[in-house]
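Please predict the structure of the following assembly.
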Amino acid sequence: MSERAGQATAWVYRGIWSVLVEWFVVPREAPTLPVREPGELCAFRPAEGFLRYLKFWFWLALLAIDAVIIAAWIATFFIDWWIGLALAAPALAIAFVPDIIAYVAIHLRYDTTWYVMTERSLRIRRGIWVLNELTITFENVQNVRVEQGPVQRHFGIADVTIETAGAGGSADPHHRTKITNQAVIEGVADAASVRDRILQQLRKSKTAGLGDEDDRTPPARATWTRAHLELLREIRDAALALRKTG
Amino acid sequence: MITRPDPILLSYYLVVSLLTTVAFPFVFLPLFFKYKTLQYRFDDEGIAMSWGLLFRKEIYLTYRRIQDIHVTRNILHRWMGLAAIAVQTASGSAGAEMTIDGVREIDVLRDFLYARMRGAKGETESSDRPVAESPPVDEALVLLREIRDELRRVSSMRGPHA
């Protein structure tokens, strides 16, 4: 029974996806970035834990909101039995239809979030109704931040936020579709390794950030070679010989 | 290169304005004149964008100063093959410095901008190369050789006299 239900939901979900792809022009495949060598590109998604994390909040909100709606509905029975019965269909619809939509939306959000990294840059795509693709180069990164709340820690995920010097706007993380200077890689399991990879790229470049780019002359090297030393020795010998003769 | 937005941008503005129902004339007129006057100029160094009938605006930014590129496409954009390509520099303004509207070659334009951004041109590689290469003739070596020869000559000249 549950297996059949699982198959049915998978089928429905695929149907929703094909509607999105066909009618709403949602790209199905991962975004790409121009690279020099094909092996450089690394595309990844949030971790499985991120899906469970989103669902945790979903169930919490569902319990809180539906408890209120159903309590209000039951209360109408005390006014009049018939009013309660008449309100059964709308009350249940108000309680459960948004839940189903939200549940599907969580899955869609998870499946449409992509992070693509190369040696030099990062591209993040997210969104269904409004698709937002952000591209930054590591050369422009100002700071890298890793954040993890208690609930996120329980699900083993963390957010890595990369900031450029672009327009600040509000630092409110809930308006992520807005154009900000932040690239949020949310819900990754190995936040430390993602951060380390970014920092490694930052260290490679000498001019990262808004730093001074003119200071590029290489340090002066000692230019004495073997031939110089040989000649200097000969000069010394010649001078010695001159003293002896003089 | 692109100098004018695609005509479909006007249809996009029309639909967007229609969605506001009663506010339609107030929303559509400014957008209509924006479309009519919108001009892009891409040169070797940067992009210039100008629009406006009564209040004219012109923005110029250099490719090198681009901090990040946002490509935002809502459903209408996707149906019409458009996108809003927002380009940010490091100035402190609250929004994007320039939003390029009405371009159909989105990926081409984005790759074009990306390839000219700092950090994407492979500048870090070139900066490791020494600026001045060692001169083909080592002047110090030549000078030292001359001094040696002169000293030898002096000592050989003095030798017989002593």
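DSSP finds seven helices and seven strands in chain A. The longest helix of chain A spans residues 48-79.
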